[in-house]
Amino acid sequence: MFSLQNKKAVVTGGGSGIGKAISVLFAKQGAEVHIIELTVESAQEAVSEISANGGKVISHACNVANHEAVVAVFEKIGAIDILVNNAGIAHVGKVDTTPEADFDRIMNVNVKGVYNCLYASIPQMRLSNGGVILNMASIAAWVGIPDRFAYSTAKGAVMAMTLSVARDYMSENIRCNSISPARVHTPFVDGFIAKNYPDNQAEMFDKLSKSQPIGRMGKPDEVAALALFLCSDESGFITGCDYPIDGGFIKLNN
Ligand SMILES: NC(=O)c1ccc[n+]([C@@H]2O[C@H](COP(=O)([O-])OP(=O)(O)OC[C@H]3O[C@@H](n4cnc5c(N)ncnc54)[C@H](O)[C@@H]3O)[C@@H](O)[C@H]2O)c1
């Protein structure tokens, strides 16, 4: 079960955190993994790790927010079976503390970046007579998280894009789902704690861990396992769905 032998998978932001865990697991399951990354060094580290374990992996330096660059990379990769739209950036702020430049930056990466990869991937999936797309949403699209205006807005758009694509390409044998993690311990979390709460980092880490009723943050490997199921043939009856992976965050926090 859950074999990805003979499949070609693209993972955006595959050099770090959740995307890296997905890239490592997909390669282990036999996929040829193409990592699209802004940060060349971290992509190279992921490539070295996967190659050392006998996996097939190629990295492509690319900003998902750049339409022409994304189209060119997908054309170079050619026919694909799987796309994981994982690259994303964090932001802290309410609507009146989110400057326009910040709002545009979050939309450019977290919304337009997903659009760009969807746009560029469909022709390559047609060459494979179908495929599966997995978008990284967030529990921020489900409930009101304090101080996450731009981020929540972007992740709401990701969920809506998931439904739209699932509907429009069902007849072409392309499935599309999303995952909504609560807090997962990755460099993304460490980075925004360090940036936004420099004076009380340990306290914030503890607070964020306990905001999941299960009492801890998720692990990238746990998200990767769900991603593997949703991108494998075993989930062939699933499309147009969002899967929270949240330690009880959405339903058990009252
Ligand atoms: N970590 C969490 O708690 C959490 C929770 C919910 C959702 N998510 C989502 O999961 C995804 C991955 O998060 P993570 O925690 O692994 O983050 P991370 O920062 O550890 O990794 C993200 C990767 O994306 C890459 N990236 C960023 N902008 C890019 C761009 N413009 N073009 C190409 N690559 C780019 C970064 O270089 C990095 O390697 C994001 O979409 C995030 O919003 C994370």
From TrEMBL:
GO MF annotation: an example: oxidoreductase activity
Keywords: Oxidoreductase
Listed SUPFAM superfamilies: NAD(P)-binding Rossmann-fold domains
InterPro entries to which the protein is assigned, alphabetical: NAD(P)-bd_dom_sf, Sc_DH/Rdtase_CS, SDR_DHRS6-like, SDR_fam
Domain of life the protein comes from: Bacteria
Family matches, as Pfam families: adh_short_C2
Family: Belongs to the short-chain dehydrogenases/reductases (SDR) family.
Protein name per UniProt: SDR family oxidoreductase
